Description:
5-stranded antiparallel sheet
Amino acid sequence: MPARSRKQKRQIIADDLFRIAIVSDPQASPDGRRIAWVETRLDQERNLYRAAIWIAQSDGGNRCQLTSGQHR
């Protein structure tokens, strides 16, 4: 039996929800080599959402955050 199947699954907890990123508005570059998208996360301390524009190569490489801000 593989080691990972012996691991017990844990229950989801409230803190897990704060780590979820909402990904929206994906846009491909004209040549198709890069993808940009908006990633929104909850800032638990300040009780607000923060949005950022990200860009990466279309194969997933060289991921880079371009901006950051409050409540999209």
